[in-house]
Amino acid sequence: MLNYKQLNYFWAVAKAGSIVRASERLNLTPQTLSGQIGLLEDALGVPLFLRVGRRLELTETGRLALSYADEIFQIGNELEEALRARPERHAIPFRVGVDDAVPKSIAYRLLTPAMGLASPVRIVCREDKLARLLVELAIQRVDLILADRPMPDEANVKGYSHKLGNCGITFFAAPCLAKTFKKKWPHVLDAAPLLIPGKDAAIRLPLMRWFDVHQLRPHIVGEFDDSALMQAFGQAGIGIFIAPSVIADEVQREHGVVVVGCTDEVTEQFYAISLERRLTHPAVVAINDTAHRELFATLAAS
Question: In this protein, which residues make up the domain named HTH lysR-type (predicted)?
Fold first, then answer.
């Protein structure tokens, strides 16, 4: 069985960067600390550190062990807090994976209702590619995923996709760039500098098809997985960029850009992916209800 005291010593040395610094923090002699780590390595059958000159460097196995140790001691801290806290004041962890194709403003609006529940909730957000987040969901390291598409059919995960809503897209440009356009919408996009979402974004293919249908050939000057970074480049006048129409006013206000045009022929969709067929988690129910009742209510009614 794993000796957690020895694991804690390993974790302390890895974080401190040296046995001497860790021994000072733990109030142990370097010899004791070194001996305990040696015993842990013997028990595991693999080296966790390599000595490079006077420095200690983690081996590949050591880096893996450190990632697990981080989680083990984080969970341990949460357990200690939960046992010490008064029940009425204890915040329930709500772990959410956010697909990096989902605009951060949309993610914020979707998650905000979870913070207003009668029972306090502490949101833990992880942003990553959908494929990796689905693995986290399968092993229950996240409770929910916010994505711009339903769960792929080929995903080897028994989960369920709950559509939160959809909306059209709006095209924005910095004022200095917008005033150079002379053509009418949508022909203003023809040969115009354009910033587009990366190839993994669900909106990418429908957007390119829309260009083909309207015989538009924009000059693509940048592709971005992160919508916030795309907006920053757009704000600087590098090119026209897109965002969901439901946050058009916010994008204009925060980035000082103007609307070039919009379309409902191309839509952004947003999903909550969970292990539940029927939503029961209070935070997930709040997110789903508010999305349908407020955020995407106008479009749903039209």
Answer: 2-59
Range of the domain at 107: 91-161+272-301
Across the strands, what pairs with 273?
145, 161
Is there a single domain that holds both residue 283 and residue 143?
yes
pLDDT at 62 over 60: yes
pTM over 0.90: no
Q: For helices 248-255 and 227-235, give the axis angle rounded to 10 degrees.
A: 50
Query: With contact defined as beta carbons under 8 Å apart, do 174 and 236 qualify?
Result: yes
pLDDT in tens, 192-214: 999 999 988 999 999 999 999 99
- Residues 178, 264, single domain; the answer is yes
- Distance of alpha carbon 148 from alpha carbon 133, whole angstroms: 13
Return all residues near 133 (Cβ < 8 A) that are at least 6 apart: 97, 98, 99, 126, 142, 145, 147
Minimal CA–CA distance to 167: which of 266, 75, 89, 282? 266
Which domain CATH number covers 118? 3.40.190.10
In this predicted model, what pLDDT tens digit does every residue of 260-292 receive, in sequence order?
Answer: 999 999 999 999 999 888 877 788 888 888 888
Q: 54 and 17 in contact (C-beta within 8 Å)? A: no
